[in-house]
Amino acid sequence: MISKFLLAVGLAVVMVATSVSSYVYLGSRQSKVAAPVQKPTAATPRAQAFVLPGTIYLAQAGALYSFSAGRFHQLTSEAGWMQPALYPDGSHLVVVRRFASYSDVYAMTPYGAVTAQLTDNAASARNAWDTGANDWSFYPRLSPDQRTLWMSYDGPKIVGANYFDVDLAVWALPLGASIRQGKAWTVANSYTGGDMQPVPVSGGIMYTKFSYDQNGNRVGQLWFTNRAGAAGRALTDTSAGCLEPSISPDGNTVAMICTYQKQVSYLTIASWSGASLGPLQTVVKDQLVAEPIWAPDGSGIAYLAPGGPAAPFQLWWLPRNAYAPPAPSPIPTPSPTPGGPHNGPLPTPTPSAAPVAPVVKPIQITANLGFDATSPLAWSG
Amino acid sequence: MPLGIKPGHRARKSRGRLSPFTTLTLVVLAIAMSAVAGGFAYFMPAALVAWNSTAQAVQVPSPSPAEILFSPSPSPSPVAQPGAFTVLLLGSDDDSKFSADHVLTQSMILMRVQPATKEVTMLSIPRDLYVHLSTGGYGKIDGAYSYGAAGAAIATVEQDFGVHVDDYIWVGLLGLVKVIDAIGGIDIVTNSPVMDDYYPADVYGSWPYDYQRVAVLAGPQHLDGIHAMQYVRSRHSDIQSDFGRSKRQQQVLQAIRLKAKQLAPSDLPALATAIGGELKTNFGLDKVAQLVPLAASFDNPDAIHQVLLLPPYVEPGAPGGSLTPNWGLISRLVHQTFP
Predict the structure, then answer these.
(1) Which distant-in-sequence residues (6+ apart) come within 8 Å of B195 by Cβ?
(2) Do B266 and A26 make contact, defined as CB atoms within 8 angstroms?
(3) Which residues of B touch A127 (CB under 8 A)?
(4) Partner B, chain A 206-225, Cβ-Cβ below 8 Å
(5) B238: nearest CA in chain A?
(6) Between chains, do B220 and A370 touch, taking CB under 8 Å as contact?
(7) Is some CB atom of chain B closer than 8 A to the CB atom of A94?
(8) Spans of all domains in chain B
(9) Residue A220 lies inside a defined structural domain of this protein
(10) Alpha-carbon distance B145 to A114, whole Å?
(11) Global pTM value
(12) A292: domain range?
C-alpha cells in the first residue's frame, strides 16, 4: 500500500519527466536536412582516410581552403572569396572576391596572402547611384606564359543606360594591366548569361557559351576560339548541354559536365585533338557532378557532388581506372608442346574467360561540408 | 485491537493509501498522458500555423452573363480519374510595396494531380496575360488576386480557362525563402544563369523601390532561400522574360519536392515556424494529412509534365505590354488535362 501523498508526488515527477522526455525525443527525431554544414577545418574526422596527391584549393561560404595530405587549411576569411586558379608555375593563385554588386580578381600566395588586385570593377563614387555601373569578373585563368589574364567579364557598360541584357564575355588582358588594355575575345549571345569558364588550351581558348536552341531552351555548349573577335566554333551539340571544361595534364582529354537539358549533370570526358572533341563518354551518371578537375599526375578526376539526395556539395574522387581501365592481359595462346613437332591435330585450348575489370566507383572524400559548386577547383602537384 | 489504538483509526489510515493495482493503473495513465502532452507541446506550433493557414474560406464569385459570354467555348474535357484534383499555386510579391491581400501574383501555376497514375501536370500562366478579371474589367491576370484575394484569382482562372479549380495554395516571397532555408536548401542545375543589374531590392532593403545586382552562376549548385528566390524571380536577363522565369519556377518547385521527401514528421514544427503567415490554402488539415504521403509517392520525374503558354498560345501587343491570349489554342491545350 502506498500513501496518496507519496503517489501524487511520484506521479508529478514521472509526468514531468515523461513529457519532457517525449518532447526531447521528438526533437531528436528531426531529419538532418537543415543541419548547418561544418567548416572544413572543423570537420570530423579531421583528416579523411583517403589522401589525394598534391593540394586542392576549394571555396566554401566565401572562404578559400587548401586540402592536402587529408587536412584542410583555411586560407582566407569568409569574405566572398571563390574560383581559385593556379599560376602555371604554381607560385600564386588568381582568385575572385565577390561583393554584393561587383567582383574583382586578385593574385594571392598559396597561403592566402593577397599580393595584387588585378581588376577594379566597383562603380566609381560618382556613378554609385546606378547599380549597373558595377561589373562582374569571374572564372580567372592565366595563360601558360603567365602574362595574360583570362576571365569572364560583363563590362564595359554605359552608366545610366539601364541595360537588362547582362552577359559575360571572355576577355584577355595583360596581367596587372587595366581593363582598358583588355580585349573581348568572344561575342556573347544576348540575354543568355554569355560566355564563361575560359580554359587556355594549345592555340586558343575553350569556354562555355550559352545560347537558345531551336526550341527556345537556354543551353550551354563548349566552344573554341583562337582569335579575339573571331566567331569561334562549337565543340559540343546543344542537346548535350555541356559546360565547365577542364583539360587533362597531358592536354589530350577534356572533362566536363553535360546536363542534356534536364536537372541532371553527368561527368563526361572526350578526347581533344587541339581542334575538335572526340565522342562524349559518360563516366559518372548517378550524381549531380560539378567542377571536375584532373589530378596533376593523371591519376584521376576530383569533382564536387552532393553527399546525399538534394544535399550540399562534397569533394569526390574518381580514380583513373574508372574511366580508363587497364587493358586486360592477353589471353595465352597454346604453344606447341615442348619436346618436338606434333604431327596430329593441335589440342583445342580450354577457353578461359577474359578477366573482368572490377567496377571502380567514385570515392566520397568529405562529409557534412558545403563547397561552392560554382567555384572551380584548383589542383597543384 | 492493540493497545493505544483508538477504534476507527485503522480505517482512516487505509483510506489514505491505495492498492497496488490502482497505483499501477494511475502510473501507466500518468505516463501515457504526459507523453501525449509532451508530443502535443512539440507539435503545437505546427498545429497553430496549420490551423491558421489551412481551410481558408474562399469566396468564388459566380460569373456574370457577360463573363460567360466571354469565356472560351468548352472543349472536350479529359476523362475524370478517381481522386484527381486541380490546385492553383499562387506566388506573390508580398513586400512592403503592397498592403496585405492586395498583392500581385508573380507566379500562377495550375496543377493537375492524378493520384491513380501518379502524374502531375503543371501549367504556368504568364503573369502578363491580358484577361477578363472576375471582379470586372480587363487587365493583367497577376492583378486578379489584388482585387479580391484567392477567390478572385480562382474565379478569373476558372472563367477564362474554362477549368474547375478545387484548391489553392498561396505563398508569399518570404515564404519561399523561409521554406527553402527550413529544408536546408535545394540542389538545382542552372542552365539559365541569371545576370540581373536591376533586380528589385524590396525584400530585405530599407527602400522597397531600390535595385540590386544579382548573379546566379551556371551549373549544378546548392541554393539557399535568397538565391533560389533570385533564380525564380529575375526576368530581366531572360529573352523569354516571364516564360523563362516560369521554367525556372517549375525547376525550383520540383527541387523543393525532392528535398521535402527527406523530411521527417518531427521537422514540422520548425518548418511551420519558418513559414509563419507566408502560406495560405483552403486545404483542410485532413486533406493535408492525405497529401503528404501522396506527394512522397510521386517519384518518377518523367510523370511530371511541365506546360508553358508560349507563342502562339499568347502573343505580345496587348495594352500595357501585356500578352494577348489565343483562347482557341489555349482551350484545346488546357482541356487535354484539366476538366
Answers:
(1) A136, A154, A166, A167, A168, A193, A194, B214, B215, B237
(2) yes
(3) none
(4) 208, 210, 212, 216-220
(5) A191
(6) no
(7) no
(8) 53-334
(9) no
(10) 53
(11) 0.83
(12) 235-323+360-381
Interface of B with A in 6-25 (CB under 8 A): 14, 16-20, 23
The minimum CA-CA distance between A374 and chain B, rounded to whole Å, is 6
Class of domain B53-334: alpha beta
ipTM of the complex: 0.88
Stretch (H or E) spanning A58: strand A55-60
Q: Do A113 and A243 reside in the same domain of the chain?
A: no
Q: Collapsing DSSP states into helix, strand and coil, what is residue A109? A: coil
A192's grid cell: 543568355
Asked if residue A221 is part of any domain, the answer here is: no
Between B285-297 and B20-53, two packed helices, what is the crossing angle to 10 degrees? 80
Q: Which residue has the cell 539557399?
A: B224
Residue A252 sits in a domain whose CATH number is 2.120.10.30
Please list the pLDDT of chain A residue by residue as tens digits (381 residues).
678 888 888 889 989 999 899 888 888 888 878 888 999 998 755 445 568 899 999 999 999 999 998 889 999 999 999 999 999 999 999 999 999 999 999 999 999 999 999 999 999 999 888 988 999 999 999 999 999 999 999 988 888 877 888 999 999 999 999 999 999 999 999 999 999 999 999 899 999 999 999 888 899 999 999 999 898 999 999 999 999 999 999 999 999 999 999 999 999 999 999 999 999 999 999 999 999 999 999 999 999 999 988 899 999 999 999 998 877 666 666 555 555 555 555 555 555 565 666 678 999 999 999 999 999 999 998
CB contact under 8 A, B262 and A309: yes
Judging contacts by C-beta atoms under 8 Å, the chain B residues touching residue A165 are 237
Measuring CA to CA, which residue among A380, A381, A376, A379 is closest to residue A140?
A: A376
For B217-238, what is each residue's pLDDT tens digit? 999 999 999 999 999 999 888 8
> What is each CA distance from A208 to A219, A241, A285, in whole angstroms?
10, 10, 21
Closest to A255 measured CA to CA, from A201, A217, A313: A201
Do the chains contact at B187 and A288, CB–CB below 8 Å? yes
Shortest alpha-carbon distance between residue A193 and chain B (Å): 5
Distances in Å between the Cα of B226 and the Cα atoms of B174, B190, B262 are 9, 15, 21
Which of B172, B129, B192 minimizes the C-alpha distance to B334? B129
- Has residue A196 been placed in a domain? no
User: Are A259 and A378 members of one domain?
Assistant: yes
Cβ–Cβ contact A311 with B under 8 A: yes
**A148-183: burial string, b at 16+ Cβ within 10 Å, e else:** bbbbbbbbebeeeeeebbbbbbbbbbebeeebeebe
In a domain, A112, yes or no: yes
A163 touches chain B (CB under 8 A): yes
